[in-house]
C-alpha cells in the first residue's frame, strides 16, 4: 500500500476502521474519567473528495445509513459535507471521527511523520496535540493513563507488520485497535501468530468485501486487532459486520472472520 492516504480516503477499509472506532470510543466514554485518544499515523485529518475515487466503494455506500452503529458513523461523515449534499464532499479521517465523539475533558494525541500531512492535521484538528514523528516509537509513553490507541500504519513494506505487532506488545493492558489490510491471508495470519507468540491476546475482526479468490490491486478486505478492548465494543463491531458486508460487497458475496488468540 502507498503512504499517501488521500488517494484511498473513504474506501471500504476506512469505513470498517471508522465504524469500529465509533464503537470503541462510545464504550470508553461510558466511564466519566478523562480519556486520551492516541493515534500513531493520523494523516491529514480531513480529505476533500473529487468526482470519483475509492470512496465510491466505501463511504458512498453507507452515506444514507440512519440506524444503529453504522448510522451514527454515517452522521459524522455527513457532518463534514454541506447540509443536504447528495454525496460526500469530504471524508473525515480517524482524528475527526474521534473529535466528533470526545468530550471537553478528553485529550487527543496525534502522531504523523509526514510534515505536510502534520500541517494539514493541525488545521483540521486545532484542539489536538499533533506530534510530527514516528507514532510507533512514541509508544507506550504516549498512552499513559486512561487511553485508547489506534495503530494504523501504511504497510508500505513488510517490516511495518512486525513493527505494528511489537508496538501492540508494548501496550499490554491498554485498550488498542490495530488496523490491517487484506489482499490475501498470509500476512494477516502471520500477524496474529506473531502477536500470540509475543503474549498479546485479543480478537481479530475481519471483513472481506471482495472474495479472496479474486486477487485485485485494491483491497479485498481489512481487519482490526482489538486488544484489551471493551467487550461491548467488540460485540457492537461484530454485530455490524452483516450490514457492512451487504453494503460494501463487490461481487455479490462477502465474508467475515473473528479470531480469538
Write down the oligomeric state.
single chain
- The side-by-side strand order for the widest beta sheet comes to 5-4-1-6-7-9-8-10
Number of strands: 10
Helix content: 25-40%
| CATH architecture assignment name | 3-Layer(aba) Sandwich
Mean pLDDT: 95
Number of structurally distinct domains: 1
Distance between the termini: 26 Å
> Strand-residue fraction?
15-25%
Helix count, DSSP H or I runs of 4 or more residues: 8
What does the main sheet amount to?
8 strands, mixed
CATH superfamily: Vaccinia Virus protein VP39
Spans of at least 5 consecutive residues with low confidence: none
Please identify the structural class as seen in this structure. alpha/beta
Helix/strand order, N-terminal first: HEEHHEHEHEEHEHEEHE
Shape: globular
Find the CATH topology. Rossmann fold
Look at the structure and give the CATH class: Alpha Beta
CA gyration radius, whole angstroms: 17 Å
How would you explain this protein's 3D organization?
- The chain has 261 residues and is α/β, with parallel strands linked by helices.
- It has a single domain (5-260), classed as Vaccinia Virus protein VP39 (Rossmann fold, 3-Layer(aba) Sandwich).
- 35% of the residues lie in helices and 19% in strands.
- The chain has eight helices and ten strands.
- It has helices spanning 12-28, 59-62, 68-78, 94-101, 115-124, 159-170, 186-197, 231-248; strands spanning 36-39, 46-48, 90-92, 107-111, 129-131, 147-151, 176-182, 203-208, 221-227, 255-260.
- The strands form two sheets. Strands 5-4-1-6-7-9-8-10 form an eight-stranded mixed β-sheet, sandwiched between helices. A two-stranded antiparallel sheet has the order 2-3.
- Helix 1 packs antiparallel against helix 8 (231-248).
- The longest helix has 18 residues, at 231-248.
Amino acid at each position: 500500500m502507498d503512504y499517501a492516504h488521500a488517494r484511498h480516503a473513504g474506501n471500504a477499509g476506512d469505513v470498517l476502521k471508522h465504524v469500529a472506532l465509533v464503537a470503541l470510543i462510545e464504550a470508553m466514554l461510558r466511564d466519566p474519567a478523562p480519556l486520551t485518544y492516541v493515534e500513531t499515523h493520523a494523516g491529514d485529518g480531513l480529505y476533500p473528495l473529487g468526482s470519483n475515487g475509492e470512496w465510491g466503494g466505501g463511504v458512498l455506500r453507507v452515506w444514507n445509513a440512519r440506524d444503529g452503529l453504522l448510522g451514527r458513523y454515517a452522521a459524522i461523515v455527513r457532518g463534514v459535507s454541506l447540509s443536504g449534499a447528495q454525496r460526500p464532499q469530504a471524508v473525515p479521517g480517524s482524528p475527526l471521527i474521534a473529535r466528533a465523539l470526545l468530550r471537553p475533558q478528553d485529550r487527543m494525541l496525534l502522531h504523523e511523520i509526514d510534515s505536510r500531512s502534520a500541517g494539514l492535521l493541525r488545521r483540521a484538528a486545532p484542539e489536538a496535540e499533533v506530534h510530527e514523528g514516528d507514532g510507533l516509537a512514541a509508544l507506550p509513553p504516549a498512552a499513559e493513563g486512561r487511553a485508547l490507541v489506534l495503530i494504523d500504519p501504511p504497510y508500505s513494506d513488510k517490516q511495518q507488520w512486525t513493527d505494528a505487532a511489537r508496538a501492540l506488545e508494548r501496550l499490554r493492558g491498554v485498550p488498542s485497535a490495530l488496523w490491517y489490510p487484506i489482499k490475501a491471508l498470509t500476512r494477516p495470519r502471520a500477524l496474529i501468530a506473531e502477536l500470540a507468540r509475543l503474549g498479546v491476546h485479543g480478537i481479530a475482526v475481519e471483513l472481506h468485501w471482495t472474495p479472496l479468490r479474486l486477487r485485485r490491486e485494491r483491497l479485498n478486505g481489512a481487519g482490526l486487532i482489538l486488544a484489551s478492548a471493551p467487550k461491548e465494543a467488540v460485540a457492537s463491531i461484530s454485530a455490524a459486520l452483516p450490514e457492512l458486508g451487504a453494503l460494501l460487497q463487490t461481487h455479490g458475496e462477502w465474508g467475515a472472520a473473528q479470531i480469538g488468540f
